[in-house]
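Let us practice reading a record.
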Amino acid sequence: MAHSEDHIALAAEYALGTLDAGERVQVETMMAVDSDYAAIVHAWEYRLGVLNQMVGSIEPRPVVWENIKAAIRHSTEQQAQPEVPSTAGEPVVAGVTGVGPTGVVEPTGVTEQPVVAKETEVAEAAELPAVAEAAPVAVDNSNVIQLAGRVRRLRSIASIATALAAALIGMLAVQVYRPELLPDALRPKPRIQTVEVRTPAPSPVPSAQYVALLQRDGGSPAFILTVDAATKNFTVRKVGADAEPGKSFELWLISDRLPQPRSLGVIGGSDFTVRPVLAAYDAGTINAATYAVTVEQAGGSPSGSPTTAPIYTGKLIETVPATR
């Protein structure tokens, strides 16, 4: 239900407590039949509750209480004063003197005159100074005027805030949908978003693979040696050889480019042994060398040179060519 500005003003003044009895009854009746209007009144009570905290108690001036007491005393005296009955016009017998010619005693000196005593008293009472009327009670309405002015200011502030909110919403809508209609200063800044695109690393180019069968006198291979040309890592696959207890197989590189055989390490007890030690040699030496296996004491040769004759030998052959 839509409410007029007068209804809203009544709600605010009801919250302030500045309405007379009839207007308060009107507001309370509207609150009883209209829940929306009751919500408006409660909203004003919530807004103006701060004003009640801002206004402190004010002690009345002494003259206010004196005027109130005088007015009460004057009203009490008027109710207690008795009403004087009127006796004007009653006859008065002065006395009886002498006997008339008929032998009947006749009153003499009879005068029928109104008694003016009461009238004299009334006149004298009229001449008495009248009781001074009590001075009108001075009522300090400054607080009511100030609060009413605050209500008007609150209305103005609410109207201005509503207008500003509507303007802000309109400007935001224009910024979102039609930014070209705004001046340059009000146009939204372009947002620069940095996106990191990670491209997958190129697949490694297959390198050449070399294999050597380490065997004795053309028999079955005891070990298979595989060398990767790119990384120069080698893998020894144990096929049919088992070390004696307390002994170890040791792999050697034998080349005419080197003064003596070079140890490539002890072949472990597992099926595969991987070593990176070929990185210290060039490709020509690696590809042309002879690879041999000797039986050494546990842990390998202590001197760095073979202590026994090789029992398994072989040379590398290219099994997988390099991709260009």
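A brief commentary: The longest strand covers residues 221-228.
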